[in-house]
């Protein structure tokens, strides 16, 4: 079972990112679950969502304590949350950031999802949309396939800018 | 059609397929998505139904009672404090022999204010005459809601059914969902005692000491008959749609020395714990209790039993553990865990089994349980 923990701030779309990732994995023919952890959070507060992907049905409902992959949609969270907590030794980190960040471990990827979203004018209520471009980056890492990523985006959003943003993230992802 | 959906969405999809003529509901976390989604279906025309946005849960159930006795299929959904606010009407729905279906997203009760999963809300309605089923997956939320209408409306039952799903851990989780063209699985609603203006009669009139108990016995007789009806409906559902259910879901129980009993998502997570324990040489099994009312006949003879209660009856004990004790004579190891959404993993459940002390009770996180 492949376990993903997504860190974001309330309102940044982390919950939808988890659903999109689960849907893309599902379209790849895998079993997948997405479970947001709802705290007493409000807009701007640090939040986590979980995605599990497996070849067989998933029976686990509890939180993910030892993720294979950690996604950080807002790097400023790293000052207040230990996003690497429990990350497996050979784990992977994906940061929404234009440049590498100190203190990362495992295989660290970064991509400027915010810049990509702004370039596509993907902005809702003043916030750039991060959850559709991140799927492109996840496809590049190999968590899901690119066709399934784009299909999942099209199933949930009727706006091709989301697809273009995902394709841009796929191209711009860096180790 | 195969897609992915949350537990809440699955309930709404099932309601769309069941086509109730009246839906009366009031939103409450973590149930809100159900009634929002149904409202969207009604607005878009995907579901032709009267949607009554009432001002309280008491009124939601009252409206369902009125519509149901008026002769149409009805549905509502609630959670926690909303469920308790309907309490008086919940008794009335069962006493009136009205096959109302309600989804209850299990949530703890305040204070302290808590929106996470717990079963105490539904157990507080245990003695009202409603059938209660607890589901463990998104697919089961859909399937159980569809079957609930069929079971409730069977003339041998004519009692309301409450479909319970864990708050957030199931209501908000996304899993795969197969929706069905249900065809004639749900026949047209027919209530033998529906209001007929050509034949006026009283509903719920004064019923004196000479007769009241007869109505109570009639509810119990139907509860007993409901076991067979449930089996029939679940069997037909399996024949039509390929997914089979029973009063319990058993996993690796055949040769088990120790059986974990839990409801809802803990009952699924327990299966992972069982696999771990088996790897260690402990012959464990899992029995997820699906139907709580009517309470199923359980054969646990010769086994040790570990019961996880996501509830508590203060001054008494875990509701499920003591139900098992009363019905089977077995002294279970009673674990109180998961209250108000307390995190419980399959590793914790495996620990409960490894450290079991039959006949004793432990509160996870409070007692040193192993």
- Counting structural domains of chain B, the number is 2
Q: What's the CATH class of the largest domain in chain B, please?
A: Alpha Beta
Q: Strand order within the widest sheet of chain A?
A: 2-3-1-4-5-6
Largest sheet of chain A: 6 strands, mixed
DSSP summary: helix tally of chain A: 5
Question: In CATH terms, what is the fold-level topology of chain A?
Answer: Pyruvate-ferredoxin Oxidoreductase, domain 3
Unreliable sequence segments of chain A: none
Strand order of the largest sheet of chain B: 3-2-4-5-7-6-12
**Which two chains have the most extensive interface, and how many residues on each?**
A-B, 19 and 23 residues
- CATH-defined fold name of the largest domain in chain B: Rossmann fold
Oligomer: heterodimer
CATH architecture of chain A: 3-Layer(aba) Sandwich
Mean pLDDT of chain A: 93
Overall spatial form of chain B: globular
Which bin fits the share of residues in helices of chain A? 25-40%
Write the layout of secondary structure elements.
The complex is a heterodimer of chains A (175) and B (370).
Chain A lengths: L1 E8 L4 H14 L3 E7 L8 E9 L14 E4 L19 E5 L10 E5 L1 H7 L3 E2 L2 E2 L4 H9 L4 H11 L3 H13 L3
Parallel strand pairs in A: 1-4, 4-5, 5-6
Antiparallel strand pairs in A: 1-3, 2-3, 7-8
Helix pairs in contact in A: 1-4, 2-5, 3-4, 3-5, 4-5
Chain B lengths: L1 E5 H12 L3 E4 L6 H13 L5 E4 L3 H13 L4 E5 L1 H6 L1 H9 L5 E6 L13 H4 L7 E4 L3 H16 L7 E6 L7 E5 L33 H30 L6 E4 L6 E5 L1 H16 L4 E6 L1 E3 L10 E6 L9 H10 L4 E4 L9 H9 L6 E3 L7
Parallel strand pairs in B: 2-3, 2-4, 4-5, 5-7, 6-7, 10-11, 10-13, 13-14, 14-15
Antiparallel strand pairs in B: 1-8, 6-12, 9-11
Helix pairs in contact in B: 1-2, 1-7, 3-5, 7-8, 9-11
Attribute tags:
heterodimer; A: alpha/beta; Pyruvate-ferredoxin Oxidoreductase, domain 3; two-stranded antiparallel sheet; B: 370 residues; alpha/beta; Rossmann fold; 2 domains; 15 strands
Please characterize this protein's 3D structure.
- The complex is a heterodimer of chains A (175) and B (370).
- With 175 residues, chain A is an alpha/beta fold.
- Chain A has a single domain (2-172), classed as 3-Layer(aba) Sandwich (Pyruvate-ferredoxin Oxidoreductase, domain 3), CATH 3.40.920.
- In chain A, 31% of the residues lie in helices and 24% in strands.
- Chain A is built from 5 helices and 8 strands; from the N terminus they run E-H-E-E-E-E-E-H-E-E-H-H-H.
- Chain A has helices at 14-27, 113-119, 133-141, 146-156, 160-172, and strands at residues 2-9, 31-37, 46-54, 69-72, 92-96, 107-111, 123-124, 127-128.
- In chain A, strands 2-3-1-4-5-6 form a 6-stranded mixed β-sheet, covered by helices on one side. Chain A has a two-stranded antiparallel ribbon with strand order 7-8.
- In chain A, a hairpin with an 8-residue loop joins strand 2 and strand 3.
- In chain A, helix 3 (133-141) packs antiparallel against helix 4.
- The mean pLDDT of chain A is 93.
- Chain B is an alpha/beta fold.
- Chain B has 2 domains: 2-180 and 209-241, Rossmann fold (3-Layer(aba) Sandwich), CATH 3.40.50.970; 248-363, Rossmann fold (3-Layer(aba) Sandwich).
- In chain B, 37% of the residues lie in helices and 19% in strands.
- Chain B has 11 helices and 15 strands.
- Chain B is globular, with a radius of gyration of 20 Å.
- Chain B starts with a strand and ends in a 7-residue tail after the last strand.
- The A-B interface holds A 18-19, 22-23, 26, 31-36, 38, 58-63, 65 and B 4, 30, 115-116, 166, 168-170, 172-176, 265-266, 268-269, 271-272, 343-346.
